[in-house]
Write a structure and sequence with these properties.
This is Chorismate lyase. This protein is α+β, with helices and mostly antiparallel strands. The chain has a single domain, classed as Chorismate lyase-like (Chorismate lyase), CATH 3.40.1410. Helix content is about 25%, strand content about 25%. The chain has helices spanning about 10-15, 20, 30-50, 55-65, 90-95, 130-140, 145, and strands spanning about 25, 75-80, 105-110, 115-125, 155-160, 190-200, 205-215, 220. Strands 2-3-4-7-6-5 form a 6-stranded antiparallel sheet. It has a two-stranded antiparallel ribbon with strand order 1-8. The longest helix is centred in the first third of the chain and has 19 residues, at about 30-50. The chain starts with 7 loop residues before the first helix and ends with a strand.
Length: about 220
């Protein structure tokens, strides 16, 4: 697992409860303060995701805490017709043989029109209830909510920061990007998690690869 830099104290200081608590708001400008705040927020989101089994519920809290929507509710927009081969080694991770059927589901998790993550999900239908399979086959409901009754736990295999607002070693005097008056350019993909979900009986039933987008920062920064 790629180790993410630790800025926990700053992340706590910047944690957002309400817009009023943040005080005056500014756009994300390309300067040191914005980059430090963006890094702290990504670290905070990453820690929250790692400490909870359901990414869907975590994103819903994130959306509400940062007032990204009038009603902070995650909507899963299923990408119809999408298909992707099971990653190499995934059958061993899921504890299944070569002939065990596996289904694939790709969804975009959105809140208030913001696509916060794009998730690839391979799951073993024989380890879900018939009703769960029916819902997954016929609706766009988030996977985590559909299988919540399994009392599942999540084991993260990797958590990679795909974009760092500051260079490695910035806290030890590394050369920093020059400050500009323009807006900070944030790439589409900022964070990626790979995880296996297990039932309460410790049986693996799903492999997920979740890619979090720049829209997790679609709110003004603190001043």
């Amino acid at each position: 697992m790629k180790r993410l830099s630790t800025v926990a104290a700053l992340a706590t200081m910047l944690a957002v409860g309400t817009a009023d608590a943040r005080g005056p708001q500014e756009p994300w400008t390309d300067d040191f303060d914005s980059r430090v705040q963006a890094l702290a927020l990504l670290e905070s989101l990453n820690a929250d995701l790692l400490s909870h089994a359901s990414a869907t519920l975590t994103l819903e809290r994130w959306c509400g805490d940062h007032r990204m929507a009038d009603t902070p509710k995650i909507v899963a927009n299923r990408v119809q017709g999408a298909d992707k081969a099971l990653p190499e080694g995934a059958r061993a991770e899921l504890g299944i043989g070569a002939d065990e059927p596996v289904r694939y589901r790709r969804v975009q998790l959105a809140c208030g029109g913001h696509v916060l993550s794009e998730a690839d999900n391979w799951y073993v239908p024989s380890r879900l209830t018939p009703e769960m399979n029916r819902i997954l086959d016929t609706t766009d409901q988030p996977f985590g909510k559909v299988v919540q009754a399994l009392g599942f736990r999540r084991q993260t295999k990797s958590a990679d920061l795909l974009w760092s607002p500051l260079p490695k070693g910035w806290e030890n005097g590394a050369i920093l990007p020059p400050s500009k008056k323009t807006l900070l350019i944030i790439p589409h993909e900022v964070l990626q998690h790979r995880a296996v979900l297990y039932t309460a009986e410790n049986q693996p039933f799903s492999l997920v690869v979740e890619t979090y987008t720049a829209e997790v920062l679609t709110f003004p920064r603190s001043r």
